[in-house]
Structure formats: C-alpha cells, structure tokens
Amino acid sequence: MSAKDAWDWGLGRWEAYFGLVLVSTITYVLNDHPTERGLVAAGILLALVPWYVLFGRRYLGRETLGPGPYAYVAGLIMLCGAASLTAPESSLVLFAACAQCFMIVRWRESVAALVLLNTVPAVRFLHGDADAGTIVAFAVWTVVVIGFSAFFGLWIERIIAQSTERRELIRELETTRAELAEVSREAGVMAERERMAGEIHDTLAQGFTSILMLLQAADAYVGRDPEEARRQLGLAARTARENLAEARALVAALPPAPLGGSSLDEAVGRLTERMSEELGVTADYVLAGEPRRLTAGAEVVLLRIAQEGLANVRRHANAGRVEVRLAYDPESVRLEIRDDGVGFGPGTARGFGLHGMRERVGQVGGVFDVRSEPGAGTTVTVEVPA
C-alpha cells in the first residue's frame, strides 16, 4: 500500500494550475504594457517561481509548525502587491495566489492574507478616475470574490485535514499489518518447532532408545549365547534402518516411513510384531471391522500413537503381555493398547509422551484416554473420526 495520499497525487495538477495562471498573467501584462513598466511587472511575477519552488512548495498541503509558512505567505503578498502597483493587470495572478494561502496556512490566517492580497488592487482602483457606481460595483465584486475564496479555502482545508487523517490511518494500518505478519511468522515458527519436536520424539528418539536397549541386550548374550546376541544385533540394525528412513521422510516432508508403502492396519501390525521380537513378550494384534483409507492426518496420528504407546510399554511397563486392537467403525476408528505391566497412579505420569499424544489426537478432533492403576497395567485408547 502506497504511503502517498490523494493530496500528494493531486499536487502536480495544482502546480500546473498555478503555472497556467502565472503564464497567462505575464502574457496579459506584456501585451497591455510592452514598455519598461510591463517588463518590471513581469520580472516581479517571475520571481514568484523561485520563491515557490525553493521555499513555499515544502509547506503546500502540510500542517507545518513554526514561522516558515507565514513568512512564505508574507513574501507572496509583497510580490503580488508590487506587481499590481507596477501594472494593475498583474492582479490576475491572485487567482493562484489566493488558493496557495489556503493550502499553506490555516483558514483564519488565509482569510486575512486574502484581504491583504486584494488591498493593493483595491487602493489603486479607488485612486483612479471612477464614478460612485463603478466603485460600488467594484466593492461588491471584491466582497463576493473574497467570500467565495474564503468558502473555497474552507473546503480546501477540510480536504487537507481528511487527507492527512487518511495518511495517518494508512500508516497505522501498515504498521499493524507488519506487526501481525511478524506475530504470525513467529507463531508459525513455534508451531513448526513443536511439530518437529513431536515428530522427533515419536520417531527418532524412540528408535534410538530401542537400538540402545537391543545393543545392551546383545552385549549381555555375547559370551553365553552368540545366536541370541546376533539376533538382537539384527533387530538393532533393522531399527537403525527404519530410523534412517524416518529421518529422510522428516527432511523431505513425506508421510511416515511405515505408511510409505502399506496401509495403517499393516503398519500397526508390524509395530506389534516387532515389539514381541524385541522384548520376547506376548504381543497380540487384533483387527476389527473392514480396514479402509483414512485422511492422511488421521492415519499419521494413529500410527504415532501406536509407536509412542508401544515405546512406553517397552520403557516403563515391564509387561509380560501386550494387546493392540485397531477397530474400524462406521463413524470412527479406535486404537487401543493394553498391557499387564506395573501401571502408575493418578498424577504420577510425567514427560512429553502423554502430552504429545493428547495434542496429536486433539488436532484431528479425536478423543484420547489413559487408564492405569499401580500393578494393574495400562490402557491407552484413541478414537478419531473416520
């Protein structure tokens, strides 16, 4: 949005009008007085050009404090008066000079300047050979001109005030828009950081934890059961490859690696099977209903909840049996992860995991529930709209 207002765009037209009036006045003066007196009057009128360009132009249409605008108007009055004294025809320039006064100083001061600008032509006329009727007609005409000019000047002053107010409003809007854009950008950055933190926690961090546990288990079997050690190392290598695929998917903003070439129910089944292989516990996967494609957001949320829920079982539950149930209902899809581990009491669960799961489910309008008691295992239930 441009910082210029309607007054700025119209300034060139006003200056063209001033120039036209000035050129017409000089031409008129030189035509009626092709003598030295006419040349002097034309020279005085031409002096209005540098006086305006170098001094007056900066005040046109601007609310400027200080003596500058008044000094310019005083000089304008003196130059116009001198030209009128030299050649009466020079008073034609008042059609431009009067308008300038209203554009530079306030309305009351402009009316006073208007009277002074017309004083010299009036005095010169009254000192001439004029009868009473002519004088009355001149006086009436002068009053009408001054009255019309005052009304016109008041209109100009209101236009300038409205234009200035509009300019300030535009500046405030631009400032507000820039502030909102910055706030929006910061909010976007924070949201992306939170999203990446959740993705890393649910994928890479879980994978590294699993790799570490498998390597520790392999180390325990190196001396007494090489076959089991190799099996643990193989699982660790597979987990590392899956972690690498997840990292590449995050960088490329692709769907989660487990969903890259399979459906949600197949991916959850593989996660459950891997849990059984890694921990040597009984892990059952139950699929209910007819599997179908969901929105990308819903599938990602259910997959991440399955990953995080099984990771919590691996790290904290010390369970001997785990059951994962994925149920496709007509209006929703429900994921349930149940273990017979140590459980936990109300208010004792801490960390990013449960909070992150709850936020993920909320993003797709789902319901998240955790039920657990010390010594009675834990059940995590998620239901999202289909």
Automatic annotation (TrEMBL):
Ranges of residues in domain Histidine kinase: 302-386
Which Pfam family would be a valid example here?
A: HisKA_3
Give the UniProt keywords, A-Z: 4Fe-4S, Cytoplasm, Iron, Iron-sulfur, Kinase, Membrane, Metal-binding, Transferase, Transmembrane, Transmembrane helix, Two-component regulatory system
Its top-level enzyme class, in one word, is transferase
Instruction: Give the catalysed reaction(s), semicolon-separated.
Output: ATP + protein L-histidine = ADP + protein N-phospho-L-histidine
Annotated transmembrane regions = 38-55, 70-98, 133-156
Q: Which GO terms describe its molecular function?
A: kinase activity
Q: Where in the cell is it found?
A: Cytoplasm
Could you identify this protein by its name?
Oxygen sensor histidine kinase NreB
